[in-house]
Here is the input.
Amino acid sequence: MLQLTQKLKDGSMEVKEVAHPILEMGTVIVQNHFSVVSSGTESSTISAARKGLIGKAKERPQQAKQVLDMLLQQGPVQTYRTVMKKLDAWSPLGYSSAGEVIEVGSGVKGFAVGDRVACAGSGFANHAEIISVPMNLCVKLPDNADLRRAAYNTLGAIALQGIRQADLRINETGAVIGLGLIGQLTCLLLRASGVRVVGIDIDPSAVSTARRHCVDEAFLRTDSGIVDQIVAFTHGLGVDATIIAAATTSLDPVNFAGEIARKKGRVVVVGNVPTGFAREPHYYRKELELRMSCSYGPGRYDPDYEEKGIDYPAGYVRWTEGRNMEAFQDLVHSGKINIDYLTTHIFKLEDAPKAYDLIFNKTEPHLGILIEYDFSRDELSKKIFVAPHTSHLTPNAINIAFVGAGSYAQSHLLPNIRKDKDILLRGVMTSSGTTSRTVAEKFRFEFCTSNGSDILNNKDINTVFITTRHNTHADYVIKALQAGKNVYVEKPLCLNETELEEIFNTYNSSLNTHHSSLPLLMVGFNRRFSPLTVLLKEKFGSGAMSMIYRINAGAIPADSWIQDQEIGGGRIIGEVCHFIDFLTFINGSLPDKVFATALPDPGSKEDTVNISLSFKNGSIGTISYFSNGSKSLFKEYVEVYKAGVTAILKDFKELGIYGGARRFKKSLFSQDKGQRTMVKAFLDSVRNGKPSPISFEEIHAVTLTTFKIIESIRTRNGMAI
Here is the structure.
C-alpha cells in the first residue's frame, strides 16, 4: 500500500510503498477514501523537521537533555545510534480520515466489513491507503455519508470539545480567536447551537471567509477600536466565553481574551498558545476562569479507552472523544452545519507532498486540504520487497527475520548482526508499515510484511528474532518453535506460568520432532555477556557466594504499556528477570527459593522491591530494585563476596576486586552491557549447531522466579521455585 511519510532528519517527504498495518485485537482495518491535512498542526511538524539539529534541540529542549544524559551514561556510539534511529525513520503524517472497513479484529463491537467510518488519532488515521484504528477512535457512518465531509472527523471533535469547555448557552456570546480550520469549525458549531459568534484573526482572508460563512461579527486583530466594537456587540457586557483556536508563541491571544471578557467569563485554550497572562487588570478583577481543552475530549491519552476499547459510562462522562466525533458527524450529515466551503484544495495521494509545500511556502490561500485515495487500486500487498538478495546460500546460512523492530532492536540488536556472507536478513514485520519499511531499508532486509505467515511459513528463514511487546512473546515463540525456527526473544519470555508451561511443552516437543540441536531458544539476558561480567565470573568461579544487586531503576509513568499487566506485565516480569539471570550466571546455580517485599504503592505497580534469593549451591543474593531514587545516581551496582574476596561492578563500566593477592581494577571507556557479544554468541551457536548460550533450564528457572516474586509480595510468604 502507499503511505505519505516524512523524515524528521530533514523534513523530506515521500509517498512510499509500505506493508499493511497489522490487524490487532480491538481494531478495524480501514481503506481510506479521504484524509484531511491540518495546516495548523501539521505545518508545525513540517517546520520542526526542516530545521537543523540546533533548531530541533531548541524546539524540544527536554528531548535534547535526554540525549545529553544518554551520552553521559551510555557513551557516544549508543547515543548516536539512538538519535539517528529517530532522525532516519520514516514517520507517518495525518490524524483525521474517512473510508471503508475491510477487516475487523477480535473483540470489536458495532463494526462490520463494508461499513463507512470516520477515523481519528495520530498514528492511526494516517495519510495512507490502509490504516488500522482502535474501535473507540472510529465512528460508523450512514451508507450514504459524504466521506469528504466525514474526513474532518478529528478536527470537528477538537472544536466540539472546546465548545463544551466553554459551556455557552443559547443567545450568549462566544468569541473565537484564530479562524483557521478548527476556528472555523468552532464558529459553525457555536452558531448551530444558538450562540452569537464573534471571530478574530490576524489574516484578512480568514476574517473575510468567516464573515461570509460562520460568524455574526468578524474582526482583524489590528482593527482600531476592536475591543469597544466587541463590547458594543454584547450590549456592554463583554463576551461570555472566548475560545482560543490560534497557534502562536505570543501572549496576545490570552491577554486579549481577558480584555473582551465579561465579569466571571471563561477563556478556553484549544490551540497551542502560552498562558502566562497578565493578572491585572482583567483576569484578577473580572475573576475570569481559564480552562484547557484536551484535544477530542475525555478518553484522549487514556490507553484503556483508546487502545483497549473500554468506554466511559455515559451517565458519568456524557461526552467522550468518541461521542464528540459521533455528534459532529450527526451535525454534518443532517446538514445542520455546512462545511463544504472549508475544502479549498484536493490532492491525489501521489501529489500529497505538494500540499505540504503549499502550506509551508504559503504559495496561495488555503484552508482545508483533502488527500484523495484511489480506493479501486488492487495492488495493496502486505509484503513489500525492498532489497532482494541474489547471493548464493551456503548450506549453513543463517536466514534471519525480525518480528518487531522497535527502538531496542534498532539500537542494540540489528547493528550487532555482522553482515557475513552466511548471514542474510530476510524479512521484518512490525505493527507499523512505516517502521517496517524504515528498518528494511536501513538494515537491508529482503522484504517487509504485515503477514506473520510470510515469516513463520517461509522455509528459507531459519532464525527468528522476536522483539514485540511483551504480551505477544509467548505466542510468537510457540509458533516459531513449531515451525522449526531458531528463536531469539527479548525478555521476558512470557507473562504467566500458563504461557511458560506451553512454551516448555512446545520446546520439548519440537526437540523430539527435529531430532537435532533444533530448536535453539534464547532470551535476551545480555548482562551476563558484558566483558566485565565475564571477567568477574572468571575471577570468582562457581560455588557458594553472597551477592547484592542494586538497581536505581527510575520511575515509569503508570500509563506506560510496560506497567500494564496485560501488555507489559509490569517491571518485575519485564526487567527484574535480567538481574535474576545475572546472579544465576555469576554463582553458576539455579535459584530455589525467593522472598520479596515491595514498597506500598496505590497503583499496585510493585516496582520498588527487595528480593531475597537462595540458590541450589548455597549462594544467596539480594536484588534491590528501586524506582524512587534520584536520576543523578548511576543505575546499576553489584557487590559479590566469596572467601575473603569482594568484587564491585559499577554500571558495567568499572569493575574492582578487593582481597586475595592484590587489588584488581578494570574500567571501560563507555558502558558495555553485552549486547554485541550476546548477538554474536547466539548466531555462532546457530551457525555451528551448538546449544543455546543460555540453557533452557536457566531460562525457565529465571522466568518462573519472576512469577514467584510477585506471588511472594502478595502473600507475604517465601516461595519455592
Remarks:
- The chain has a mean pLDDT of 91.
- Residues 299 and 649 are 45 Å apart (CA to CA).
- The longest helix spans residues 61-88.
